Amino acid sequence: MTNVLSIKTGDILDLINTAQYLNEALHMAASDSGLTQPATNALQALSGEIDNKLRIIEDRLNEVREQIAD
């Protein structure tokens, strides 16, 4: 993999990690006692979906990195 592609894929991975940390904060905020149960459930469902999508993106990025390395 060229140096430029390596840097760009590394940047993408950093963005994914940042989004994962923000999503974890959202999930923690969803457990705030001031929220109604429906609001808590909605935020936790949203967080779960975001987590699933981020994992898929990370997997695809790793697949691309492997194909470029071949």
Commentary on this structure:
With 70 residues, the chain is mostly helical. The protein has one domain (3-69). Helices cover 86% and strands 0% of the residues. The relative contact order is 0.15.
Which percent bin holds the helix content?
A: over 70%
Assign an overall shape.
elongated
Oligomer state equals single chain
Total strand count, please?
0
Tell me the number of helical segments per DSSP (H or I, 4 or more residues long): 2
Question: Could you give a short account of the major beta sheet?
Answer: none
> Into how many domains do the coordinates divide?
1
Task: Give me the secondary-structure topology.
Elements: H1 3-29, H2 37-69
Brief overview, please?
With 70 residues, the protein is mainly alpha-helical. The protein is 86% helix and 0% strand.
